[in-house]
UniProtKB/TrEMBL annotation:
It is an enzyme of class 2 (transferase). This is Stage 0 sporulation protein A homolog. May play the central regulatory role in sporulation. It may be an element of the effector pathway responsible for the activation of sporulation genes in response to nutritional stress. Spo0A may act in concert with spo0H (a sigma factor) to control the expression of some genes that are critical to the sporulation process. SUPFAM superfamilies: ATPase domain of HSP90 chaperone/DNA topoisomerase II/histidine kinase (SSF55874), CheY-like (SSF52172), GAF domain-like (SSF55781). It comes from Coprococcus intestinihominis. CDD domains: HATPase, REC_hyHK_CKI1_RcsC-like. It catalyses: ATP + protein L-histidine = ADP + protein N-phospho-L-histidine. One of its GO terms (molecular function) is ATP binding. Residues 568-689 form the Response regulatory domain. The lineage of its organism: Bacteria, Bacillati, Bacillota, Clostridia, Lachnospirales.
Amino acid sequence: MRKSDSVVKQKKASSHLSGLDIVLNQMVTIDRSRTMEELNRAIQGILEYIGEYTKAGRAYTFEFIEKQSIYRNTSEWCAEGVKPQMDNLQAVPFMEMPYWHRQFLRGEKVVIEDIEAAKDEMPLEYRLLKAQDIHTVIVFSMFHTDTLWGFIGLDDPILDESQSLINLLTVVGSHLGSAYDSCHKSNLLDEKQNALQASIDAFQREQRFLQVLCRDYISVFFADLKKDYLEILKVDPEANVLQVSASEEYMTLSYKEIIESYCRQFMMQEEARKLKKRLNAERLMRELKTRDRISFRFQSLPNGAGHEYFEAQITRMAIDEENFKVLIGFRFIDDIVSENLDKLQSAGRYIQRLVDDVTDISQIESGHFHIEPAFFNVMTFFRDFQDIMGQMTADRKLHMTCRAHDILHPQIDADAIRLKQIYVNLVSNAVKYTPEGGMVHFELYEETSDSPGCVRLVSIVQDNGIGMTEDYMKKMYERFSRYVDTRINKVRGSGLGLAIVKELVDRMNGRIEVQSAVGVGTTFRVVFDFPFEEADSDMILQSPMESDLEMAGQSSTESDLTDCEGMHVLIAEDNELNYEVAHEILAMHGITSEQAENGKICVERFMEAPEGTYDAILMDMQMPVMNGLEATKMLRKMDQYHGNTIPIIAMTANVAKTDMDKCLAAGMTGHLAKPLDIHALIAALVSVRKREMQKWRRRIKQW
């Protein structure tokens, strides 16, 4: 028996030494851990060994999270058949285990051989263990340098087998506390290093943004939206904001006050409202939480350099609980706006021509197209057409010549509007199909006619453009026929221009001839025989448009545009967008305006205003309540309000002669086609201002 007992003791001692080696090896691994991931792997190895060695049901560690006053189960080993509990023990308040917590804070262990015996001493812990059907338990604090990091525990170990390990586990708990402390400090150091690197990266990023903004933008500001703080980093000497800040030096300002002052002093009311809303600090902070930068455009009163269109870019720099830092850059974009406006106007003119051409073809097909001859002066007609040609070639580098000669009978009986339409279509084609540097020539002269009482009017439209092939000339008068050439593939047209010209020439009993060669150019010759009447020299110089409906759209000189400055116009327009377009066009030339939403309001506003308030009325034709024709007729009956003399210019998409006649019959003095053309609108007002000046000169002579 004695020999047998000795063998058993030797085996137990050998097993114990082997277990110590395993624990010590795991502790070495713990010492070498540099991350929480490595530490947790080492802890898992220790738990597995001591759990199997003590034949426990479960071995585990809990981490103490002081800020939240909770224990969190971080590692777990379970014997076969034992249900894991870690997911259910992620937030155990320390007040649910007060006795254990006090022991742990002193760096001590708790050994419960029978939970029933501990019922009175630790009732809350008893309840917790009872609920998990645990009968015995050993727990050791993970404690280091006055800091509790958590505890390590065993559920239902065989204590007879575990006594020799208890003292060692106390050391393990202390060692784990030291390891947690080291990892925590290492993590803090990593966090601080990462934060430092992030700060360096952010600083470098801010420097890059600042360099780009200062290079590309004329004025740059630093702002803290939370602290209502603004600092000038760079400012254009001509910037309006200098008049608000009253200094070119770097200085700090109130963000909200600067925005408010700038909008009040240098913005139109509606634009100011939009800009204040766009630059509202709370709105910017909401947007910049999810975006790196925001950009938008706005218009202000012209600054010292004459710039009035600007782009703002706001770049997020740094955000925390106390700060919301941004960089704000401004640059002028007048050149971009001007280019886009030119494109819109070009598109508008193209659409208008397309509508006009389709309308004419529709009227021809329906039988509603009529030639309406009336006597007019050819030389006045020619001078007007010169202006039109100037507009048609204004944006092209072409050499244009325009010549009239041998006009012995200037007073002829013809449809001037349709004649002008023929010439415009032919010259327009010549301009479109002649490359830059080329020549376009228009010539008008008189020949003897074979018809008694008539004069032969001959016109020549010549260019040295791309020319046409013989095959194309056979079908050039067909509808929707366009000449295709790679040199002019960007030329836009309806394909109806020449078809309309041929219809008009035929209906006016004329003839049209053409000569063309590819690479040489094209020449059209149009011939009409028109009745004439003898006229004295005074009649030759008189403009037929003075007593007829004017087609606004003649070119205006720079001095003409200056003459328009200070005019005030009433615009009868129910469409808000159309009004804003007209308002902005007029404002660009120093002309103020106000809106009347329909004809009735227009009449009422004119009656209520003091005499001389309005220099002219721009009248839309299609409006609710009272249309433009009705409003014009009512105004023309108002002798006492000078409604019978105020210039009224129609604005309508209806450009057929019958529509113009209706405008003339209602008492209108001018006509503008929609979409509005800047030059046509200003030219119409120039004409109004000139007539008013002529009236004053006549009155002065009479006095």
